[in-house]
Amino acid sequence: MNIKGLSTTLILLLWPVALLSQSYQVKVIDSVTKEPLELATLRLLKNDYTLFSNNKGSFDLKLTQEEEAEISYIGYKTKKITVAKKDTLVNLVSQPNFLSEIVLEKTVNYTHSKKIKSENRPDQYFGFQFGTENCTYIPNKEKKKGKVTSIMLYHKKLRSMNFVDSALGRDKNCKGCKVDYLASYKISFYEYDSKSKKPGAVIYDKEIIVYPKNASGKFSIDLDSLSVPFPANGICVGVELINTKYNEPKSTFAFIGPTLGFYEYKENGLPKSWIRYRNEGWEFSHVTTRYDKGKRSNAMAVDISIKN
């Protein structure tokens, strides 16, 4: 037996495996202070796969080829990069005046707790693709500033044999359908811009990522340990479906659980719900449906608990 030839053959066979399993690091820092940015978001544009940086500002990636990516962090300008098969250092530039003038004082002693329930209970449930954000406006009728302690969403389990037909407003049998993926949520908070009648500046500067199960019922998110302000003119709550688990997900017609609860409301010239998509300009738009009785819209059902 030619041992030398066999060894050479094994090395050649294992070489592609070594290449596939090789990890590369992308590190994100503040362009001025050079401090690492923890929980920055890296999104591969090809498949919307999303990662979050560790406490050293680093992402660990396994690549077989160059990938186009987008790196974002609240309070900084989003940056597009090409992730090559080498370690990369990325400087993010802060955005002056990115946040509104709303400031939550850490020394405030709140004396009242209150729960603001959704205007109506959800009567429809919809599923969305990765990279879709729904946003609902929660008014502050007392005009008293405070802090958000929790929010609650409404879910319905996405089942293998049925899906929500948005045209009919009910479950429809689908023999070939199956649950493809389970979503993670990125929760964002915006001030309400009364001039444009849509969400304005981001008012909380940390990433909030939660991991719901594909189940029916209420999904509560505890925020009491955070400093999420509740402005005098209300708040807009955004829920984006993000991919934190799958390398090559479908970009269209994917069945992603769970579904989110919505209710119908009459607009009367004051929209309270919006939607936007990462692959379509990432601008909030309001969708309405005309009925015989007037213009109506669907809003994501959100309960919110506050202290003031």
UniProtKB/TrEMBL annotation:
Family matches, as SUPFAM superfamilies: Carboxypeptidase regulatory domain-like (SSF49464)
Database matches in Pfam families: CarbopepD_reg_2 (PF13715)
InterPro entries, per database record: CarboxyPept-like_regulatory
Annotated protein name in UniProt: Carboxypeptidase-like regulatory domain-containing protein
